[in-house]
């Protein structure tokens, strides 16, 4: 069982960054949220001009609840898309290449064996249980999945990644994510359940009922992340949580993707309060629960493009905004250096 040591942001370096940004050749505050991001990055890293080399970790797993007709796609798509990702054809593959990021795909619970050496095999179990009738996994398996993500993040950071993007792959995974958020917020699933990959009205109503049934059956403790994960969670959701906690411990900025990733971040906050300080929400998903999940973290998204693909794609697309904040601090002239007098 892991324990997590999360440091507070470096207030002194944040103030140093704030003063330095005000000395740049522009009116104070004129670059808006870019200035806020740069100050946050300084606090996270204790550097006014940090390295933010990006790296992407995608965790893949299947869900037993798919048999309840909650998804628009068949379960076999999880294993097929894992291969597509490592072969360079998926959304996260092309957007990762666009920003110069490494993309590592981990199998933490895909139903089938993935016939590709490029997919990193760390299977905790073969899919989760059907959460309407049984626990998703044991508490021990929840911890194992967290540890897979934790170690994966430590390894990629050791290789030089200084801004972590975490993504997921798993047909049906918006259902456990919605159930988890309902528990954390003590809200009826009606307010957070969305259409995922594109289910119809009948399936949407069924998905809401599936979340209600699962919560009523298990009665998860909203203050216990492991209880929630083991009863109604997902293996890739747990692995993302672990990756975020490793990055927060190592003071590496985390660029969150959409709904499922942000729910994982909420669990990270529950497991290790303060870890959310190291997170930026990249985009506002069309999933109705995403705003509520972001508010749970005290965050506001950088962009809104009506995205709902997952995989980490929204974070990769938004990364150039974080990069722009970093370039501003690193490369923009000060009034003194440019000999500009106001």
Features:
single chain, 342 residues, alpha/beta, 5,6-Dimethylbenzimidazole Phosphoribosyltransferase, Chain: A, domain 1, Rossmann fold, 6-stranded parallel beta sheet, 13 helices, 6 strands, 9% strand, globular
If you had to describe this structure to a student in words, what would you say it looks like?
This protein has 342 residues and is an alpha/beta fold. It has two domains: 11-49 and 327-338, 5,6-Dimethylbenzimidazole Phosphoribosyltransferase, Chain: A, domain 1; 54-321, Nicotinate-nucleotide-dimethylbenzimidazole phosphoribosyltransferase (CobT), large domain (Rossmann fold). It is 47% helix and 9% strand. It has helices at residues 11-22, 32-45, 76-86, 91-98, 139-158, 174-185, 201-218, 225-232, 235-249, 259-271, 290-297, 313-331, 335-338, and strands spanning 54-61, 102-109, 120-121, 163-169, 254-256, 279-281. The protein has a six-stranded parallel beta sheet with strand order 3-2-1-4-5-6, sandwiched between helices. Helix 2 (32-45) crosses helix 12 (313-331), helix 6 (174-185) packs across helix 10 (259-271) and helix 10 packs parallel to helix 11. The mean pLDDT is 97.
